[in-house]
């Protein structure tokens, strides 16, 4: 079955989190988090410094074309991170990406959020190929992917806007038939 063609983002709930569509009211939170160099250097597409215009570009030009959710704590609307599936070139393919505010690192939140949208991607969107990747110096992200079932598929150089050069990366994929 082909994946759903629209980019609907229903509210999804996990034990501790609520995932909702990112909105313009999130600009300040996005800038506060993604503007931190510690976060930006671990991401491919984020410039540094990062300001409100960059966050508005993300909300206007990126969010509408991706299955992308704001992560909030259950019972609190404030954005603390983003998790998303970027459609790939082939039908049924997407790439998992995410970032979280450093205030909340190390509590299993990203594993919980990523697992939730992987289920959505597989069960609702009928995605058949889900890939991801992380810079080789970002072991925490590698661990998140490993915990939700990804395995290494190769090594590559990926661009990093914040560092201004390509960075050694580990390419990952979810083996066919694997459920998060
Ligand atoms: C990567 C990131 C999303 C992790 O979020 P998180 O909520 O802290 O992740 P979790 O708590 O679910 O899991 C982190 C795991 O990495 C482990 N870890 C943390 N730092 C580590 C390190 N330096 N080396 C090895 N493992 C590490 C943790 O112990 C945990 O594993 P465990 O459950 O087996 O103990 C977060 O650090 C982040 O947003 N970083 C900046 C942006 C980013 O890196 N995005 C991903 C780009 S590929």
UniProtKB/TrEMBL annotation:
<dbReference type="GO" id="GO:0016747">
    <property type="term" value="F:acyltransferase activity, transferring groups other than amino-acyl groups"/>
</dbReference>
<dbReference type="InterPro" id="IPR016181">
    <property type="entry name" value="Acyl_CoA_acyltransferase"/>
</dbReference>
<dbReference type="InterPro" id="IPR000182">
    <property type="entry name" value="GNAT_dom"/>
</dbReference>
<keyword id="KW-0808">Transferase</keyword>
<keyword id="KW-0012">Acyltransferase</keyword>
<protein>
    <submittedName>
        <fullName>Putative ribosomal N-acetyltransferase YdaF</fullName>
        <ecNumber>2.3.1.-</ecNumber>
    </submittedName>
</protein>
<dbReference type="Pfam" id="PF13302">
    <property type="entry name" value="Acetyltransf_3"/>
</dbReference>
<feature type="domain" description="N-acetyltransferase">
    <location>
        <begin position="17"/>
        <end position="177"/>
    </location>
</feature>
<dbReference type="InterPro" id="IPR051531">
    <property type="entry name" value="N-acetyltransferase"/>
</dbReference>
């Amino acid at each position: 079955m082909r994946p759903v063609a629209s980019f609907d983002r229903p509210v999804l709930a996990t034990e501790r989190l609520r995932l909702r569509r990112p909105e313009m009211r999130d600009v300040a939170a996005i800038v506060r988090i993604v503007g931190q160099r510690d976060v930006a250097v671990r991401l491919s597409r984020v410039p540094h410094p990062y300001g409100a215009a960059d966050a508005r570009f993300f909300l206007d030009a990126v969010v509408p074309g991706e299955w992308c959710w704001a992560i909030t704590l259950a019972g609190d609307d404030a954005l603390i991170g983003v998790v998303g599936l970027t459609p790939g070139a082939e039908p049924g393919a997407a790439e998992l990406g995410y970032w979280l505010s450093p205030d909340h690192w190390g509590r299993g939140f990203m594993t919980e959020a990523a697992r939730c949208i992987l289920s959505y991607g597989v069960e609702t969107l009928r995605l058949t190929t889900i890939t991801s990747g992380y810079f080789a110096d970002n072991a925490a992200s590698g661990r998140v992917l490993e915990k939700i079932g990804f395995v290494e598929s190769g090594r590559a150089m990926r661009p990093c806007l914040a560092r201004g050069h390509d960075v050694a990366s580990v390419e990952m994929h979810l083996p066919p038939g694997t459920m998060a």
